Q: What sequence folds into this?
């Protein structure tokens, strides 16, 4: 049972004011508020309002440029570059997305490289921006070293999120978005705050033994999902979205930041595809064929990824976003005290 209910617009206004009070320019305050309200509104608590304090701490520590202006460069190739200038990734993505879509329309496939950004967000808001334009999309980024490779015992990879989306016209898109660790680090932090144990198999303690204690997990290492398979996908992300784009790998991002309690700085890679261009000259409509596949999945009683989120979104748009008294008091405190609150 919630104690307060806010509309998406009301929560956006509060979160934006918190970030402006914290020193972000309106460009960044608005972009951060959009992804945080999207997370809270879609019941993705690990990337909702709980992230505000971490962003403010990162600003206070001088680890992000609060008034950075993203620089977009493109030519007639498929690669669009956005230099975030040390600012948060969200405004950089928003600046580059229309150019990325234009390049994809021209070439059938295009990639956006975001460099020198501070990154804390879920990837699905970006993916949905692109599926709304009728494009298939994938996004990935490193994080900071907190996950041991399968068979190892020391943090090396990040929680390295990977997201994909397929457009479905007027229907909500097909979207998945997950950490390549068993769970996002934010989930472990939420267990720590709630005083609840972790499920088995999420993490190892500093001595390398399996643990369900969130404190020991945060001090030790998280584990990749699907053992060697998740470990390999996470390694691919380090290669494509760090090494290949000339930006920091997860161990480099951790060393540059010197802590895991602030938001890390590194790069991000987004790739978009125009399904009609790829299917040109081949039998069948790719959109209709995709619908057959989704129908077959649902026909077995399985659900599509993001269905839970879309249901939560419909509910919070109709009834407001539920917040506990503690959460509302925390927002009030952050608004009143700004950076002094963290
Ligand atoms: P989850 O494990 O909660 O969910 C992963 C995906 O699987 C979601 O798309 C989810 O859809 C879907 N899903 C879950 N259960 C089922 C099911 N039974 N059938 C079909 N689909 C299902 O995500 P994570 O905890 O791994 O990641 C959470 C967020 O953390 C992501 O948004 C990610 O981008 C973010 N993150 C960001 C990082 C960063 O550095 N910026 C680092 C790591 C993570 P649904 O939501 O509808 O349940
Ligand atoms: O939840 O793992 C996570 C995470 C790390 C950086 C941003 N989110």
A:
């Amino acid at each position: 049972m919630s104690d307060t209910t806010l509309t998406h617009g009301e929560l956006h206004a509060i979160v934006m004011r918190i970030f402006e009070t914290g020193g972000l320019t309106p460009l960044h305050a608005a972009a951060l508020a959009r992804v945080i309200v999207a997370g809270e509104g879609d019941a993705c608590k690990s990337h909702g309002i709980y992230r505000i304090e971490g962003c403010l701490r990162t600003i206070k520590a001088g680890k992000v440029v609060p008034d950075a202006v993203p620089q977009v460069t493109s030519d007639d190739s498929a690669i669009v570059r956005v230099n975030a200038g040390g600012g948060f990734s969200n405004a950089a993505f928003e600046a580059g997305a229309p150019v990325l879509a234009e390049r994809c329309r021209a070439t059938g496939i295009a990639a956006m490289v975001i460099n020198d950004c501070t990154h804390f967000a879920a990837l699905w808001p970006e993916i949905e921006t692109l599926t709304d334009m009728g494009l298939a999309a994938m996004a990935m980024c490193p994080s900071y070293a907190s996950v041991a490779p399968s068979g190892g015992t020391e943090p090396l990879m990040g929680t390295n999120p990977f997201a994909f989306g397929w457009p479905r016209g007027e229907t909500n898109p097909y979207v998945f978005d997950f950490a390549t660790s068993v769970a996002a680090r934010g989930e472990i932090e939420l267990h720590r705050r709630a005083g609840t144990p972790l499920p088995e198999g999420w993490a190892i303690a500093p001595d390398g033994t399996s643990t369900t204690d969130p404190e020991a997990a945060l001090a030790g290492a998280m584990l990749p999902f699907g053992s060697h398979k998740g470990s390999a996908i996470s390694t691919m992300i380090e290669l494509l979205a760090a090494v290949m784009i000339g930006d920091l790998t997860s161990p480099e991002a951790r060393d540059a930041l010197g802590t895991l309690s602030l938001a890390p700085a590194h790069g991000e890679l987004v790739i978009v595809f125009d399904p009609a261009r790829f299917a040109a000259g081949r039998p069948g409509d790719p959109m209709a064929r995709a619908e057959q596949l989704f129908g077959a999945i649902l026909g077995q009683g399985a659900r599509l990824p993001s269905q839970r989120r879309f249901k939560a979104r419909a509910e919070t748009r109709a009834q407001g976003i539920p917040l506990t008294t503690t959460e509302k008091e925390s927002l009030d405190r952050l608004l009143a005290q700004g950076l002094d609150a963290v």
The chain has a mean pLDDT of 96.
